[in-house]
């Protein structure tokens, strides 16, 4: 049932948002010369997939979790995109393809060993990763692996249609924050 919602919302989000996405893409060309950021992440069943976001950091930034990256590498456009969460919009493509859901645990990198162990122990990888969820609206990020995995499991166990929409609405209305940067 959630897959139907995911497909419809991502399809119409991309279709209706195309002019807006195009403007951000063009601004990104001037900002970094490479407006899209594509990175391999851990998906459902621990299978790799290519996550797509708008680039918010300079191109030479190391591929590490956000909380390990330096805030000095965030561009001025990137700061705006992160604050408004617009950097996440291209992930609607990942949702449309079925790599992600709108609601689910945030996909991590393959080098985040502690988080992978914590999530493995709680079977978090049995579901599609998501753009938002319980952890995101409660400002829990990947810098606290045990708490994040526990919160992800809690969300998975309590996910209902009303919670699905609650997390989306909370995110769109500005509750929560993105991954912190040191």
Question: What can you see in these coordinates?
Answer:
The chain is mainly alpha-helical and 182 residues long. Helix content is 47%, strand content 11%. The chain has 7 helices and 4 strands, in the order αββααβαβααα. The strands form 2 sheets. Strands 1-2 form a two-stranded antiparallel sheet. Helix 4 (113-121) links the parallel strand 3 (101-103) and strand 4. Helix 1 (2-31) packs antiparallel against helix 3 (91-97) and helix 4 (113-121) runs parallel beside helix 6 (145-158). The longest helix is centred in the first third of the chain and has 30 residues, at 2-31. It is globular and about 45 Å long. The N and C termini lie far apart (38 Å).
* Low-pLDDT windows of residues: none
With strands numbered from the N-terminus, the spatial order across the biggest sheet is 1-2
**What is the share of helical residues?**
40-55%
Q: How many helix segments? A: 7
Radius of gyration: 15 Å
> SS-based structural class?
mainly alpha
Compute the average pLDDT. 91
Inertia-based shape: globular
Percentage beta strand? 5-15%
The SSE string, one letter per element, is HEEHHEHEHHH
Please give the largest β-sheet: 2 strands, antiparallel
Assembly state here? single chain
Total beta-strand segments: 4
In short:
This protein is mainly α.
Task: Provide the descriptors you would attach to this structure in a database record.
mainly alpha; two-stranded parallel ribbon; 7 helices; 182 residues; two-stranded antiparallel ribbon
């Amino acid at each position: 049932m959630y897959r139907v919602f995911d497909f419809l919302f991502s399809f119409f989000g991309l279709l209706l948002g195309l002019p807006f996405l195009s403007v951000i893409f063009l601004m990104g060309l001037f900002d970094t010369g490479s407006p899209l950021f594509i990175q391999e992440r851990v998906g459902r069943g621990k299978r790799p997939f290519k996550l797509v976001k708008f680039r918010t950091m300079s191109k030479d930034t190391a591929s590490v979790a956000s909380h390990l990256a330096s805030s000095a590498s965030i561009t001025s456009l990137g700061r705006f995109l992160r604050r408004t969460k617009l950097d996440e919009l291209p992930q609607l493509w990942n949702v449309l393809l079925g790599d992600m859901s709108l609601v689910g645990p945030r996909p991590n990198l393959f080098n985040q060993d502690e988080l992978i162990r914590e999530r493995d122990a709680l079977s978090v990888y049995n579901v599609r990763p998501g753009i938002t969820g319980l952890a995101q609206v409660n400002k829990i990020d990947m810098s606290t692996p045990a708490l994040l995995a526990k919160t992800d499991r809690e969300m998975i166990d309590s996910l209902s249609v009303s919670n699905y929409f609650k997390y989306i609405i909370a995110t769109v209305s500005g509750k929560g924050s993105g991954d912190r940067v040191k």
